[in-house]
Specification:
The complex is a heterodimer of chains A (137) and B (640). Chain A is an all-alpha fold. Helices cover 59% and strands 0% of the residues of chain A. Chain B folds into 3 domains: 164 residues, Up-down Bundle (Four Helix Bundle (Hemerythrin (Met), subunit A)), CATH 1.20.120; 208 residues, no CATH class; 102 residues, Tick-borne Encephalitis virus Glycoprotein, domain 1 (Sandwich). The chains are: A mainly alpha (137), B alpha+beta (640). The interface between A and B is large, with 43 and 55 residues.
Chain lengths: 137, 640
């Protein structure tokens, strides 16, 4: 656990601190353009604060989240697409930062399990009901 | 001295729980009437001694006896009395003692109420005794609340400010009443497997109901607390610890429904047993997740690997033992009821399929990241978007089907007639959907669908209530609980779809707008609480140039604990919340302010309350019936 935190601390230290003077990013960390602001907020909600438990970058008050918010707003201001920004963050921090786990071989079971259970339950239900009906008849 | 009294009480309690376990299990054999008596009286004795230990610990907290290590590390003389008391369970050791106290309470109720046959009761007491012994061993060996501290410190370290809140003072006892209430259902189920006695579902029903009511209220309370305390306006984060309480609730709900059919017609006998075992198993797993330090979050104020290991062994024995018993004995219970494909029974089968699938969803979502990490160190996050794509559609489908259950008859129902009787509810659903489309912008498919289903649920409940006019109270329980689902759904959909938010940095005198509201910042004053200092913002809610109300969000600093806390200010109309959280000091008297307008937010918890009331109604009705005609089987069932 300690190693992970040390690692995270290193990552955060390595994160470039965006200049506060960047034209579009205001002191209050908001875009004046509502379209850009909505994009930023949506992106922030999709990212997890790595220092907190279960909070998104959007909600968290941690320095980490503050830095990520600066970073992604700067990239939006530079004209990068949402996908590019997300890819950049995943390359840096891994899938851990995504609130929505990516669909890939090691998460197939995660995504399918609820529906497998539902399907299996449906089959069992059909058998149970059929049996009960045959008893009734 | 007082601490040793607690310690000795716990040792007596352990001895009594062992006696209770042995005597109770022996009492399942027909001739052992003495053993049954002994099990009963040990249950009472257990309650006395665990109660004494708990009382002693509470006393130590109230008088701030810092010679007790637990008090020194979790209390403070300046803390208000109510938080000195809630501090008893605001830590690992004390909360485990509370767990055993609730367990002993249920055991005493099992012994006192003597529901079901003698042998069944005795077996249930035996199982409760085993569980109590296991948890008492856990407390005495890994989590002793009465350890001494020498020299006695002058002052205690205080309680996490997050836990110094009336909502959170009540939240753990409520949840424990639910978690542990499921232990009574579990014990009855295990006893039924041992003695092969039918009618266990009827005997255990009040316990299932209490557990369900407590879980429902506990979850609603926790969600409300998260909403007003954490300062980001959310009500459910799919945090693993929240999930740990949701899983037993989903299974307890399935259990209540399935047990209904078992009582009524002997259907799903083995399945109901399995659900009773699963419900408590999930409570244990929840405890493990929260207490072991596998997760660390605001709730997991205790993290210690040896404790985790102990709990894991305990869980393995309890779940493994119960499942082995089930596999061994369940085949002998095979009965199987007869019912038509269209019937109340079939509806209950579907109810269970959807509830179990919803629970599977939460289970996989909570444990998958842990398992993946353990296997090869891959770290992933399973956040709200996952549940929005899996849990939400499955649970939504369940909600659509709910009204058909009470509309169908037992054994053989008439789908066409049920459908026709529900037309007015369908009408209400259409009205709700059209109203949403007409009034609200932006229009959204999800919100419209949610309101249609809410209208459908509430309409069907009203029809059900009308149909049962004049019946005893318990007949309305299902209608009320189902209407509560509809009310909560409106709250969830409303806040999710139409919440507006504003963030601004304001100097005194400046204004901001959020939704329909205009707010004026009148500066910040410094305040002093009993055990904290606060920056209190004075925010005027404007109506033109007139001040309509003052809202006072605070930022608190607790010096004893060295921690910061937000205290939000919420002004509600009952249908819409204005929610303010004070941000950081930006210098020169300027402060950041976060404001949310959450339409319909209060309905989320109102719905939970209505659901719990439904549960209480069904419980109350049955007690009355029992008093009126003690010989008759108590059949005042929720959805009769």
């Amino acid at each position: 656990m300690k190693i992970i935190f040390a690692f995270l601390a290193m990552l955060i230290a390595a994160l470039p601190r965006p200049a506060h003077a960047a034209a579009v990013v205001t002191v209050g960390d908001t875009f004046s353009d509502p379209v850009l602001e909505t994009r930023a907020r949506n992106l922030q909600r999709q990212l997890r604060c790595l220092m907190c438990q279960g909070e998104s970058v959007d909600e968290s008050h941690s320095p980490f989240s503050e830095d990520v918010r600066h970073l992604l707003r700067q990239q939006i201001a530079e004209g990068k697409s949402d996908q590019q920004i997300q890819d950049f963050l995943v390359a840096r921090y891994g899938d851990f930062i995504l609130m929505k786990p990516p669909v890939q071989p090691n998460t197939w079971l995660l995504w399918l399990a609820p529906f497998l259970v539902l399907g299996a339950g449906g089959v069992v239900a059909a058998i149970v009901i059929k049996k009960a009906a045959s008893r009734e008849a | 001295m007082i601490g040793e009294l607690g310690q000795v009480s716990l040792c007596f309690a352990l001895a009594l729980s062992l006696v209770m376990a042995a005597a109770g299990l022996m009492g399942t054999q027909a001739p052992n009437a003495v053993a049954r008596k002994l099990a009963s009286s040990s249950a009472m004795g257990l309650l006395v001694f665990v109660g004494l230990a708990f009382g002693v610990l509470t006393y130590a907290f109230v008088v701030s006896d810092f010679s007790v290590l637990l008090v020194a590390s979790h209390s403070h003389t300046l803390k208000p009395l109510v938080y000195k008391i809630s501090g008893v369970w605001g830590n690992h050791e004390g909360s485990m003692l509370l767990w055993v106290l609730v367990l002993s309470l249920y055991a005493a109720m099992v012994a006192g109420l003597k529901r079901g046959g003698e042998r069944l009761t005795s077996g249930a007491l035996g199982m409760q005794g085993l569980l109590a012994a296991a948890f008492l061993l856990f407390i005495l060996f890994t989590s002793n609340p009465f350890l001494r501290l020498d020299p006695t410190p002058f002052e205690g370290a205080g309680l996490t400010p997050l836990l110094q809140d009336p909502g959170l003072a009540m939240h753990p006892p409520m949840l424990y009443a639910g978690y542990v209430g499921l232990s009574a259902a579990f014990s009855y189920a295990a006893a039924a497997l041992l003695v092969g006695e039918e009618g266990w579902a009827r005997a255990a029903r009040p316990f299932m109901l209490i557990a369900w009511i407590a879980l429902t209220s506990g979850i609603a309370l926790g969600s409300w607390w998260a909403y007003y305390e954490l300062g980001w306006g959310g009500f459910w984060a799919w945090d693993p610890v929240e999930n740990a309480s949701l899983m037993p609730w989903l299974i307890a709900t399935a259990l209540l429904h399935s047990a209904l059919a078992t009582e009524k017609s002997g259907a799903f006998r083995t399945w109901t047993l399995l659900l009773a075992i699963a419900g408590f198993s999930l409570s244990l797993i929840g405890t493990f997740l929260v207490r072991s330090g596998v997760l660390s979050s605001v709730h997991a104020f205790a993290s210690d690997p040896t404790r985790g290991f102990f709990i894991m062994v305990l869980i393995a024995l309890a779940i493994g033992g119960a499942l082995a018993l089930f596999a061994w004995r369940a085949p002998t219970l095979q009965g199987g009821a007869a019912f038509a494909p269209v019937s109340r029974e079939s509806a209950l089968v579907l109810n269970n399929v959807f509830l179990v699938a919803s629970c599977a969803c939460v289970f996989v979502g909570t444990l998958y990241p842990l398992v993946l990490d353990a296997i090869n160190g891959t770290k992933i996050t399973v956040g709200p978007p996952y549940y929005a794509l899996t849990f939400a559609p499955i649970f939504f489908a369940l909600l659509v089907l709910v009204p058909f259950g009470p509309a169908l008859g037992w054994k053989r129902g008439d789908l066409k007639a049920a459908w026709r009787s529900l037309y007015p509810a369908l009408g209400l659903a259409a009205v709700a959907a059209i109203a949403i489309l007409a009034i609200v912008s932006p229009r959204g498919l999800a919100a419209t669908g949610a309101f249609a289903v809410a209208g459908w649920l509430i309409g069907a409940s009203l029809l059900d209530i009308r149909k049962r006019r004049g019946a005893r109270a318990s007949a309305f329980a299902a209608a009320l609980a189902h209407a509560g689902l509809g009310i909560s759904l409106m709250g969830v959909a409303g806040t999710t779809a139409w919440r507006s938010e504003a963030l601004a940095v304001l100097a005194p005198g400046q204004t901001m707008t959020v939704g329909p509201y205009t707010l004026r910042f009148d500066g910040v004053t410094e305040e002093k609480g009993p055990n904290y200092f606060a920056d209190r913002a004075h925010i005027a809610l404007m109506d033109g140039s007139r001040v309509k109300a003052m809202l006072l969000p605070e930022h608190r600093f607790y010096p004893a604990e060295g921690q910061d806390m937000n205290d939000t200010a919420i002004r509600t109309t009952g249908l819409r919340d204005l929610y303010l959280a004070l941000g950081d000091d930006r210098g020169g008297g300027r402060f950041a302010l976060r404001a949310y307008v959450s339409p319909l937010a209060p309905l989320i918890w109102l719905g939970g309350l209505v659901m719990a009331l439904g549960g209480i109604l069904s419980f109350w009705g049955r007690v009355r019936v029992k008093e009126a005609e003690p010989a008759a089987p108590a059949v005042a069932l929720a959805a009769e």
